[in-house]
Write a structure and sequence with these properties.
Largest sheet: 4 strands, parallel
Number of helices: 7
Distance between the termini: 39 Å
Strand order of the largest sheet: 1-2-3-4
Length: 183
């Protein structure tokens, strides 16, 4: 990374989940605007999460570096008002860009005729603890309403944990690129 390369090719650098304070400072010295893109709250990672001791509360040094990176950024983008509020102690220049819908992705405009109400969960194996928060609600919805189908995407282990829901009342979808999420 040198000043000539940065100045000739970049005006803005977007750093997703920043963790290298030296890099951010060098880029800013070159005159670039730094945007820290945050889509997770690493301060609240549960103890059972695989990243707890790497970038979560089990590693105070990593959290401190993340906080400094957020503080040094010119702008921070987040996915929710809660995340914006939490991170505002480190940087006041925060914009909320929600996950989800985009006119540029034609899959959002498609619809399917079906006689079920599909309730879905999409996450990797790192979200098992998060899934625990909604698991009972999904099982209850299935018990209360005959036309509900539970759709689990990404982690087959989460799908398998729903043993009390019959196979024909649930669906597993393997991980796909983000562009296919709406489909």
């Amino acid at each position: 990374l040198n000043q000539e390369n940065i100045n000739n090719y970049h005006d803005i650098v977007i750093y997703s989940r920043p963790h290298n304070l030296d890099y951010i400072r060098r880029v800013k010295r070159c005159g670039c605007i730094v945007i820290a893109d945050m889509d997770d709250l690493f301060h609240c990672i549960g103890k059972k999460h695989p990243a707890y001791n790497h970038i979560g509360p089990g590693n105070k040094a990593a959290l401190s570096i993340l906080e400094q990176c957020i503080t040094e950024a010119n702008l921070v983008t987040v996915t929710s008002p809660y995340l914006a509020n939490f991170l505002s102690v480190f940087n006041k220049n925060i914009y909320i860009i929600p996950n989800g819908w985009s006119e540029r992705n034609a899959y959002w405009k498609l619809s399917q005729n079906r006689n079920t109400v599909n309730i879905g969960w999409l996450g990797t194996s790192t979200h098992k603890e998060d899934f625990g928060l909604v698991r009972a609600s999904l099982v209850n919805a299935k018990k209360l309403y005959d036309n509900v189908k539970i759709v689990i995407g990404g982690d087959f282990g989460i799908y398998q944990s729903l043993k009390e829901i019959p196979e024909h009342k649930k669906l597993f979808l393997p991980a796909v690129p983000y562009s296919l999420y709406p489909f």
